[in-house]
Amino acid sequence: PRPGLGWGSNAEGKELELPARAFPLAVLQTENGVLLPSLQYALPFLDLHGTPRLEFHQSVFDELREKLLERVSAIALEGKVEERYKKLEDLLEKSFSLVKMPSIQPVVMCVMKHLPKVPEKKLKLVMADKDLYKACAVEVKRQIWQDNQALFGDEVSPLLKQYILEKENILFSNDISFLQNFFSPSPKTRRQGEVVQKLTQMIGKNVKLYDMVLQFLRTLFLRTRNVHYCTLRAELLMSLHDLEISEICTVDPCHKFTWCLDACIREKFVDNKRARELQGFLDGVKKGQEQVLGDLSMILCDPFAINTLALSTIRHLQDLVGQDTLPRDEAPHTALLLSQHFRTMGWHEVTDDGFVLFPPCKEAELITRFLPLLMSFVVDDHTFTVDQKLPSEEKGPIPYPSAIPEAFTKFLQENRIACEIGLYYILHITKQRNKNAFLRLLPALVETFSDLAFSDIFLHLLTGNLTLLSDEFALEEFCTSLFDGFFLTACSRKENVHRHVLRLLLHLHHKVAPAKLESLQKALEPTKQSGEAVKELYNQLSEKLELRKPSPAEVTETPSMELPLPTVPTPASR
To answer: What stretch of H or E contains 463?
Structure first.
């Protein structure tokens, strides 16, 4: 035969030439295939069904890879620590050269995932390649992040922005209700949020990464004064507490304080025992521990903590009125106020260089002057209510008090704690549908400490509670006091107030008198400088008001009941 050709014969006995390479291909398949005797007959059977050999070998490869992944995970758990990590390191050394091969990459990543310390050289190679960095497990990323704060910051920053946006979306939601508001979700529910869970996973048990996140939160809080970062600081710590990450919880000096406060927030009340316990934590902070004081201040600046403390204070005041007792005679209540005062003090302590402790303000005035002032408002309400229930012949002509004590206005303007408690008292009387008390104290809200009365959280709660007074919106006096005397005083300089007013009108516009509604629509018209959110809300309100306008009445002539006289021709016309 000629070189390179083999001989054969067909059915007619003629010579049949076959390529010489057909034999090396068969050898290649035999030598590199799955060498199992049972497959000698199974593979031709698959051929008959049109199943490609590639598909068969790929399925075998995938199965072997899964077994290998299981084995790697098993090695990470069996034997002595040194031996198991030595095996994994050897396996990584042999397989890392194939890390960019998609079919082998999962195995290499699995080996790296189970190594507590991946060699620095390999970590740098992973970090330098975007695809490898994206593919590696979070356990490997933690080892990269702990020595690269900038890269970790790039990962965390979008999550922090998302968290703030989620909080703001709740505060500006068009669904206004006094039953469901910003503070309705329980602490445990809030900790199941996407951002908190992702941050918890990214941190794991790594104290260094936890400290980095806290530093990010401190810096952002200092820069923006946004209290939602304080909420995240507390939620993150309690999320790690839920997972029993003792490596972090035991080294965070705020852990027990946050745990105790979290229990109070969950129960929506601070009792005397817990008030003393919280005060004990604060008293235990030694001089020179400014960092701890700063972190405690952040935790107490959490709106959920403020909400719980303020509501507990109002409830405590009501109890004192019933007991004919003054606040200065109740020590646990003083402890509660000191806790709130510490939060206020913390707000002023934060500086660009860190946290500096200043001497506290005069808390005695709060207890001896401001709280009794609030109690006098409660007494006024009780007196007026009893008077209204007296028979007509015994009832004296006693109108509801309308004057605001000058001291009350001054406290709201100059003292943050007094302002917080005063605002929550106004929310309390609004929720009780106490229109008289609300209109009496409303003018004091125009000028408050740091414009707290125009903060998003207060306006969110106020608009929700005002739905309980929806019938009062038909009255000119009520709308003038609320809108002209309060809301519109700040709309032009504070866009958030503009948004909250539009939210309220979207919900209650059908209750407002048409003439007043028309004037409000003109007053709330967005300017060129207004943001898109304000314009969108205003357009929604305009559309709703347009739909409410009655359609033009069709002018129809009333048919005459008299029959027309017949035309009689005149003599001239004849």
So the answer is: helix 456-466
Question: Using CB atoms within 10 A of its CB, is residue 485 exposed (0-12), middle (13-18) or buried (19+)?
Answer: middle
Q: What gap in Å lies between CA 68 and CA 355, rounded to an integer?
A: 53
Beta-carbon contacts of residue 568 (< 8 Å; ≥ 6 apart): none
Q: What is the pLDDT of residues 109-124, one digit of tens each?
A: 999 999 889 999 999 9
Tokens of 495: 């866009």
9 phi, psi to nearest 5 deg:
-145, 150
Cα torsion 165, 171, 173, 177 to 10°: value is 150
Give the three-class secondary structure for 381: helix
Q: Which residues of 343-352 are buried (b: 16+ CB within 10 A; e: fewer)?
A: bbbbbebbee
Q: Is 15 helix (H, G, I), strand (E, B) or coil?
A: strand
pLDDT, tens digit, 9 for 90 and up, residues 524-535: 999 989 999 999
User: Which of 288, 403, 400 minimizes the C-alpha distance to 355?
Assistant: 288
Q: Which two tokens stand for residue 410?
A: 């001054």
CA distance 539 to 542: 5
Cβ-proximal residues to 502 (8 Å cutoff; 6+ apart), any chain: 524, 534, 537, 538, 540, 541
Q: Residue 50: which region, alpha, beta or left (left: phi > 0; alpha: psi -120 to 50)? A: left
- Length of the chain counted residue by residue: 574
The whole-angstrom separation of Cα 264 and Cα 283 is 19
Amino acid at position 90, single letter: D
Given the structure tokens 């490898």, which residue do they identify? Answer: 132
Residues in Cβ contact with 101 at an 8 Å cutoff, skipping those fewer than 6 apart: none
pLDDT, one tens digit per residue, over 195-212 is 999 999 999 999 999 999
CB 327 within 8 A of CB 333: yes
